[in-house]
Specification:
Layout: H1 7-17, H2 31-45, H3 49-58, H4 70-85, H5 92-132, H6 138-165, H7 173-201, H8 210-227, H9 234-253
Helix pairs in contact: 1-2, 1-4, 1-6, 2-3, 2-4, 4-5, 4-6, 5-6, 5-7
């Protein structure tokens, strides 16, 4: 073992974590991407090439979690691999169980934090900026900054947090802070949605025509109904939008 892991290794792991799902497949899901992201730690910990390849092969097995919070699991497993390289860590079977527990726990929390709270909030912020400045790209920029500032911050800081916390990384105050973040983002999202709806209905204080207001109300109602069900697949979204575009183009001709 070449010594304790440090910032440079964490940075490489976080950079590689951006490609966690690049080789996603139904058999191993994020397994290959996980091994690729963990490789800098294994390279620093195992001097023997054969042993390093054996550990790397073990980590290509099935793994799946929320992609951003995967950084926490990467750091925690890197700590365990450091112990393992020193002869005191868990064996391969125990490592599989620990990864499975971390993956499911982080997925449950990360889905609520990023998919169901932060992503809708970022989208509404982008819409609000687009309504305010329709002749600029500020809507797209605002959406990206709102989401990426949190997403990338957690992704790059998460490896170090996971390494210091180990398998119990969510057993302390971090889980409580993340849970509070979910609630906070939900409240902020509701406020921003209200502002965006008011702006869409009466931009500059002048109400929109009744047809626009009806379409907006119908869209909100459809969105609320669809939110109660499992989210549509990308294919379903694409087909639905395509049908709406065709109908709109046909109506425009008449």
């Amino acid at each position: 073992m070449s010594g304790r892991l440090g910032f440079r290794v964490f940075w490489r792991m976080a950079m590689r974590a951006n490609l966690l799902q690049a080789t996603w497949n139904f058999e191993r899901q994020q397994g290959v991407g996980w091994a690729y992201a963990l490789q800098p730690a294994l390279r620093a910990l195992y001097a023997d090439a054969d042993e390093r390849r054996e550990r790397l092969a073990e980590h290509t097995a099935y793994f799946n979690t929320q992609p951003t919070l995967a950084s926490l699991a990467l750091g925690a497993v890197a700590q365990l691999e450091e112990q393992r390289a020193a002869g005191t860590g868990p064996d391969a079977a125990a490592m599989v169980r620990i990864k499975a527990a971390l993956g499911s726990t982080l997925a449950a929390l990360g889905d609520r934090l990023f998919w169901f709270s932060l992503r809708p909030l970022a989208a509404v912020v982008g819409v609000l900026f687009a309504l305010a400045r329709p002749d600029t790209a500020w809507g797209a920029v605002a959406l990206w900054l709102c989401y990426a500032s949190v997403h990338l911050g957690v992704r790059f800081a998460g490896v170090g947090l996971g390494y210091r916390g180990g398998p119990a990384v969510l057993g302390g105050s971090l889980r409580s802070r993340l849970e509070k973040s979910v609630v906070f983002l939900a409240y902020v999202g509701c406020i921003v949605v209200g502002v965006a709806v008011a702006w869409a209905l009466a931009p500059g204080g002048a109400p929109r025509p009744i047809a626009v207001q009806s379409a907006l109300a119908g869209g909100l109602g459809l969105g609320l109904l669809s939110a109660q069900r499992a989210r549509p697949s990308p294919t379903q979204w694409a087909l639905g939008i395509g049908v709406l575009v065709v109908i709109a183009a046909w109506l425009h001709r008449f």
